[in-house]
Design brief:
740 residues; alpha/beta; TIM Barrel; Rossmann fold; 3 domains; six-stranded mixed beta sheet; five-stranded parallel beta sheet; 24 helices; 25 strands; 32% helix; 18% strand; globular; binds alpha-D-glucopyranose
Length: 740
């Protein structure tokens, strides 16, 4: 063959290989790589190390960079910046197979632009807002070198003592499932492979929010029915929305640490739900199987974890150190390794990393995206929609004119605290808009005086007098109190939910000046502030709102935005009531309403039974009327009933209402909750505007796990309820479900 014909042969081979490569499905590409891998390289893909900072107990450094260069690392976490990402990907190109890294980070509520903490966004009950927040976070993270977030955290919790209540969507499985799906859609955007899509993770699988006593990392113990009806729905919704990975957790569920719980992962997640992504352990949780005293050594830990369905080992090296020998000795079937590696490689192909390991390392894009002013505008919009108006007696809000304002309290000037836990405050938090900044911009320094009054946690009242004097010299007092950033979040369970320090005493002292008082509370969890709630005329619960916190609070204070958020979790009167939640069972001797415990009734001797603020509660600057309820039985094979009604804005300003649909199965085996949220809608109404709302109840929404744990629709009487809150039902009617 002459040179020309050889050249033609080579070109046609490359073209056909290229074409065949393009035509190959991702699974074929995965298998073509898997076939080339040694056992050490396969186990390497199942290994993740932390890089630039720890978000868990520090583990020995080892030689991570050498491992990466030898193709023995599948992923790194805690990297920020295209420069660092590029450096790590360049290392992978020194390895034999040049398999790129997935770079993960806890992008929980924003990357460069910090959005409200997740429970605040859930308070908006607006899935477009939730999705948009995740979309901006993904756009920024993907421009900043990150292609995988360990979010959304979808743990349901009924216990505000648990610090990570700030990270989820509250107590309800239906709302939690809708929020989980919205977050996943936001992170993935147009789909993995697009430049601003990142992998996302539903965590912590499962029932991590049910730790006994609200204590972080503590055991959870529950029936299979409670697990499936309360704690699993948000995970299932995330899987159905296309979540890329699942992270297990650091606790044990019914005595089995979730990292080795094959019922959860192999039976439910990968079996019943047919989950095709991969499962990553939580920080060191494989090694912690020993601490749980579930296994005796690291060899057993690796064996239990791989059989339990954990595909990647975060930061404990059990897989790296133990799996090769376990496979060689026949104690672990190579098929388990190959399944895990396939799942991991599939995501790397979907992300487009094999095509371009530097896909997320574009410095030009990083500069352009991370300085986009539009992101803060959206963050401000999300934040104002996350603020709950708890009280507004005498319509003291919105603030009507630029009278002289005394701004008092330790959080009014705080930047880092407004970012909240799990924010990447490693960025310059100098850009955070505080309440003080926002008010100064609005009313000018001649109408604003500030006094701190006290610290968040300290017990000193030395600042009270100055605060009182400032209040006396003003027309109106705005008080800014709550928690510091580190008082909620991981490993931040607290037994005392009262407003910390002497903050409530400060509020009382200011109230006693006789000036009108407005209180804003910034916190990561429901707090207890009964005196304030009973006396102060206006209260806004503003959670932690992120980069635009102050501006969003000012927008609501001055009525530029009419607050529309509602509580996604019940607020107790004190810690003694916890756990307290709206979807409880009726019991055989229910407490008599709000009376103290009557003879042989199920209340408390020393406290009324009801919570301080109910699930689904939140006020507006306008009022809404619910009318014209119509129930229409439906005869198609899935939908059973249509509920329609009219909502009218009967006030003077435009506003949004969250109408909620609840059901109750009146007689059932097993007993069912007295209420279950099964639908909601949020609508904007101009003054006097009417809108007709329709809810459809299908069989799925009326079904539950029967006494044999079979998912079933039992015939019988159901109560259908529509309301503005779980304790504000506007309409209730019985509906008969016929025998199917
Ligand atoms: C922590 C958290 C988990 C987080 C991980 C990585 O242990 O429990 O939510 O994603 O570490 O930072």
């Amino acid at each position: 063959m002459n040179h020309k014909s050889i050249l033609i042969a080579i070109i046609s081979f490359c073209l056909s290989f290229q074409l065949s490569a393009q035509n190959k499905t991702i699974d074929e590409k995965v298998d073509s790589v898997l076939r080339l891998m040694t056992l050490e390289e396969k186990v390497g893909q199942m290994t993740q190390y932390a890089s630039f900072w720890s978000t868990g107990p520090k583990s020995p450094e080892g030689d991570k960079l050498k491992d990466i260069a030898e193709g023995r690392v599948g992923s790194l976490l805690n990297i920020v910046g295209t420069d660092k990402a590029r450096t790590m990907q360049e290392l992978t190109q020194k390895s034999r197979l040049k398999i790129p890294l997935i770079l993960g980070l806890d992008v929980i509520h924003g990357f460069k632009t910090t959005f409200p903490i997740p429970i605040a966004e859930a308070s908006s009950w607006d899935m477009n807002v939730v999705e948009q927040s995740a979309r901006i976070a993904a756009t920024e993270a993907s421009a900043g070198g990150v292609n995988w977030t360990f979010a959304p955290m979808v743990d349901i919790t009924r216990d505000p003592r648990w610090g990570r209540v700030m990270e989820g969507a509250g107590e309800d499985p239906y709302l939690g499932a809708r929020v989980a799906a919205a977050r996943v859609k936001g992170f993935i955007g147009a789909g993995l492979g697009s430049k601003d899509a990142i992998m996302c993770t539903a965590k912590h699988f499962a029932a991590y929010g049910a730790g006994i006593g609200g204590r972080e990392y503590n055991s959870a113990d529950m029936s299979e029915r409670t697990l499936h009806e309360i704690y699993l729905p948000p995970f299932k919704a995330a899987v159905e929305a296309g979540v890329s990975t699942i992270m297990n957790s650091l606790h044990d569920l019914n005595g089995i640490p979730t990292t080795g719980n094959s019922y959860l992962v192999r039976k439910v997640l990968k079996g019943d739900w047919n989950f095709q992504g991969f499962v990553i352990s939580d920080w060191g949780s494989i090694a912690e199987l020993m601490t749980h005293t579930y296994v005796k050594d690291s060899i057993e830990a690796a064996w239990v974890a791989i059989h339990g369905g954990t595909d990647m080992d975060m930061e404990c090296r059990a897989y790296r150190n133990q799996l090769p020998a376990l496979v060689a000795s026949g104690k672990v079937d190579i098929a388990l390794i190959d399944d895990a590696v396939r799942r991991i490689l599939r995501k790397k192909f979907e992300l487009g990393l094999f095509g371009n390991p530097y896909k997320f390392c574009d410095e030009g894009r990083e500069k352009q995206v991370l300085s986009n002013p539009q992101h803060r505008i959206i963050a401000r919009d999300v934040a104002k929609r996350s603020i709950v108006l708890l009280k507004n007696t005498g319509s003291i809000l919105p603030l009507k004119s630029t009278k002289k304002i005394a701004l008092i309290g330790p959080l009014a000037t705080s930047k880092t605290d407004m970012l909240g836990s799990w924010s990447l405050a490693k960025f310059d938090d100098g850009e955070v808009a505080t309440l003080y900044d926002a008010l100064l911009k609005r009313v000018g320094k001649e109408h604003l005086v500030y006094a701190k009054g006290c610290g968040v946690e300290d017990t000193s009242r030395v600042g009270f007098n100055q605060a009182i004097e400032a209040a006396k010299a003003a027309d109106l007092v705005v008080v800014s109190v709550g928690e510091k950033r580190e008082m909620s979040g991981e490993a931040a369970s607290r037994s005392n939910l009262q407003l910390p320090g002497v903050q409530e005493q400060l509020i009382k002292a200011l109230y006693e000046t006789g000036k009108p008082v407005v209180v804003l509370i910034n916190a990561g969890r429901p707090l207890v502030f009964n005196w304030t709630a009973d006396h102060v005329p206006a209260i806004l619960y503003a959670w932690w709102l992120g980069s635009e916190a102050g501006n969003a609070m000012a927008d609501v204070l001055f009525g530029d935005y009419n607050p529309s958020a509602k509580l996604p979790i019940t607020f107790p009167r004190n810690e003694g009531q916890v756990p307290i939640y709206y979807n409880h069972h009726h019991t055989g001797r229910p407490p008599l309403g709000d009376s103290n415990s009557a003879e042989y009734k199920g209340g408390y001797l020393d406290l009324v039974y009801s919570p301080k603020f109910h699930f689904g509660y939140g006020l507006s600057y306008t009022t809404f009327e619910y009318s014209d309820f119509i129930i229409t039985p439906l005869n198609d094979d899935d939908n059973l009933i249509k509920v329609s009604f009219t909502i009218t804005n009967t006030g003077k300003v435009a506003g949004e209402e969250v109408a909620q649909l609840y059901i109750r199965d009146r007689v059932s085996m097993p007993v069912r909750p007295v209420m279950e949220l099964k639908g909601f809608t949020k609508l904007m109404l101009q003054p006097s505007e009417k809108q007709i709302v329709e809810f459809i109840l299908n069989k799925e929404k009326l079904s539950y796990y029967d006494k044999d744990m079979k998912w079933a629709l039992e015939p019988g009487t159901f109560e259908i309820m529509v309301g503005a809150a779980s304790n504000d039902i506007k309409f209730k009617v019985n509906f008969e479900v016929p025998k199917q």
